[in-house]
Amino acid sequence: MAVPSFYFGGIDLIGIALILCTYIALYIPLALSLNFELGFTGIPNFGKALFVGAGASFAGAFSGYLSTLYLGIGIGKFITNNQSVAGQVNGVLAHDVGFSIVLLLLSLGVAAVVGLAFGLVISGVAIRLKEVYLAMIFFAFAQFFQLFAQNYAPLAGGTLGIQVADPFAWAGDYRFVAAVVVLVIFAALSFVLFQKLTSSPLGRTLRAVRDNEFAAEAYGRNISILRMKVVAIASIVSAMTGALYIFYSADVIGGSFDNTLWTFWPWVMVIVGGAANNWGTVVGSAVFWTLLEALDIGKFSFSGIIPFQVIWLEYILNGVLLVVILRVKPGGLIREKVTHPLEEETRKIAKRFLDAKGPKGADSQSKEEAPVGTETDPAP
């Protein structure tokens, strides 16, 4: 028995709803992790694709190797003879719910460890850099890993990719629904995690680092350690998102995790929804994917009308949506929530202090405080 359909105007509404729910649930953890880095801490991570791709590639390879060892099927040949071995493994998993659940949990654990390792290594090397250079380092690492995964076949099959051991094979015709349910649960848990973190004293500390890292450092905060912790947590969630995606799609191609889908789109979601607001990120993800799905359904209606191929409409939509939001609501659909009554006033005072310490303010202050008889006094 397959998933039921309900057609209206030639469109399967149930199918569209499931697809929409899938991608919203998939991107919410990724966008929340970016919001944790960018919105709350001011870390411009332009390499989210690195952590998603690493988690996906290593989790896919691990699930295959573990399955062959446990089941005694094609040991050591999961990559080289993937189609045959993966087919036999999935045939057994279709009747073994217990091992399928264990396989999923262990693979997510491996993805989390890989994300943590990548996050600590990259942040340990580059976290002291200023925003522009840090963004470039993240982007460069993402591009490097994409090329590595695309050309190193033992990891995840290279350009051809591999079929993964399917932990949802036991669900039969409802495999798709089971995968969506797991994605929704993970999205909900991710929201609770980041909501707890950002509502705690840690969240206020991160805002202080974002707004004025020198003032935060003066109060004894170790800026580098705080940023490394933020990148590590966000990297774990991103890598687990990548692992869930390949188990949902049942295959993995390491070089397919490009920056457009897995870095720039989450940036649009965070900016549209509102940075430093977890609810805003959720809303931004939902708005983004709803508009994108609506466009995907009706874009071929514009064929022959617009002077370019309709496949480029989604990229134009991203740009237009971003410009409109920045113009009409610069803070996003849901602005950052002030968590303490004095926080907004503190920011205003800090801004006035920084403005006063500018070149003009510094000159005037030096003249006022300089003792009589120095070069600042006019000659008698």
Domain count: the total is: 1
Structural class: mainly alpha
Q: Helicity, in percent? A: 55-70%
Anisotropy-based shape: globular
Q: Kindly, what is the distance between the CA atoms of the first and last residues, rounded to a whole number of angstroms? A: 100 Å
Main β-sheet, spatial strand arrangement: 1-2
CATH architecture: Orthogonal Bundle
Q: How is the main sheet built?
A: 2 strands, antiparallel
Q: Could you walk me through the main structural features you see in this protein, from its secondary elements to its overall organization?
A:
This protein has 380 residues and is mainly alpha-helical. The protein has helices spanning 13-38, 48-71, 82-93, 97-126, 131-151, 153-156, 175-199, 201-211, 213-218, 223-249, 259-273, 278-298, 313-328, 343-356, 359-369, and strands spanning 7-8, 11-12, 162-163, 251-252. The strands form 2 sheets. A two-stranded antiparallel sheet has the order 1-2. Mean pLDDT is 86; it is low at 361-380.
